[in-house]
Write a structure and sequence with these properties.
The protein has one domain: 2,3-Dihydroxybiphenyl 1,2-Dioxygenase, domain 1. Helices cover 16% and strands 35% of the residues. It is built from five helices and 16 strands. It has helices at 19-29, 94-103, 167-175, 230-243, 302-308; strands at residues 9-16, 33-40, 43-52, 61-66, 81-90, 109-113, 116-122, 128-134, 155-163, 180-185, 188-192, 201-206, 219-227, 252-253, 258-263, 269-274. Strand 14 and strand 15 form a beta hairpin. The longest helix has 14 residues, at 230-243. The radius of gyration is 19 Å and the shape is globular.
């Protein structure tokens, strides 16, 4: 029962290591804006960072939980996970990014993927990232002193799912999410949400016989898909849980969106999240990400929480 409720990627959430390293990598090296600094709602000793464009538009939001010192094991990227998180930048910016990443000491692999120049590299925790050059992305980027309009990352381009067997994933994406198969290349099949384009693509990589991924440092915890409002979220939950029998969480209030979680047939953890209310509900756009924001029930514990979190050094020019 394909529908058009899923509009594309909302965010990607990863389990990472050191908070300062993570902050520096995504804001300084990749030039993303820290749009929200809060805590893991299930563990207030751990930050939850949201990086994106000026306002944290869904489709641009990379979110991380820096778990250093919390006894979390190093993860293993494998089947049942998002294996690669891909960002979008102008084609002409690819040489700039290659130099910038290499100057930062990163190993960069160049390749062509579905006709587009692509750079693959790792973040400090071992997440596999890509920057895909393309000239179809009209989203307005966040720019910094070092990264201008012509080079800046626009948001996500695609996520790559690693699955042990692809047919059930293909079937689910087409029938339940309304995605369209648009291309295939080797073991990778590309699907598009809506009309396709950057932030609308999901690449399914069939890794038969590969090891199952293990959640931990350096792995993506889940990918979230966006819907326009609560009614669409409830419709998706009803379809998945009541009609198809998936184990789906109750609706979670994440302050900046409402969402549900479930594992799709390829075992990847999916979240479906609403576009509203967004990140400006508790800070002005100008001040996004500058202060620690806590859910209402944690406010009485603010002093204790702030004491337990690592201090983050923010450069003067941010």
């Amino acid at each position: 029962m394909a529908n058009n409720l899923i509009k594309g990627i909302h965010h990607v959430t990863a389990t990472v290591n050191d908070a300062q390293e993570d902050y520096d990598f995504y804001t300084q090296l990749l030039g993303q804006r820290l749009v929200k600094k809060t805590v893991n709602f299930d563990n207030n000793r751990v930050y939850h960072f949201y990086y994106g464009d000026e306002v944290g538009t869904p489709g641009t939001i990379m979110t991380t939980f820096p778990y250093k010192g919390q006894g979390v094991r190093q993860g293993r990227i494998g089947t049942g996970q998002v294996a690669i998180t891909g960002f979008s930048a102008p084609t002409g910016a690819i040489p700039f990014w290659k130099r910038r990443l290499q100057d930062a000491g990163l190993a960069v692999a160049e390749r062509t993927k579905f006709g587009n120049p692509t750079l693959q590299f790792e973040d400090p925790s071992g997440l596999i990232l890509e920057i895909t050059g393309n000239d179809e992305d009209e989203r307005k980027p966040w720019v910094t002193a070092e990264i201008g309009q012509q080079e800046a990352i626009r948001g996500f381009y695609a996520v790559t799912l690693s699955v042990a067997q692809a047919p059930s994933t293909f079937d689910f994406l087409a029938k339940e999410f309304g995605f369209t198969k648009v291309a295939s290349e080797g073991r990778i099949t590309r699907f598009a949400a809506q009309d396709g384009g950057p932030g609308q693509y999901v690449d399914v990589r069939e890794d038969r016989g590969a090891e199952r991924g293990i959640n931990g440092l350096g792995t993506v915890h889940h990918v979230a898909w966006r819907v326009e409002h609560d009614e669409a979220l409830l419709a998706m939950r009803s379809r998945l849980a009541d009609e198809l029998g998936f184990k789906v969480t109750e609706v979670k209030d994440r302050n900046y969106f409402h969402s549900i979680y479930f594992r799709m047939p390829g075992e990847v953890l999916f979240e479906i999240a609403t576009i509203p209310p967004g990140f400006a509900i508790d800070e002005s756009v100008e001040n996004l990400g500058q202060s620690l924001k806590l859910p209402e029930w944690e406010e009485p514990n603010r002093a204790q929480i702030e004491n337990g979190l690592p201090k983050i050094k923010v450069p003067d020019h941010v």
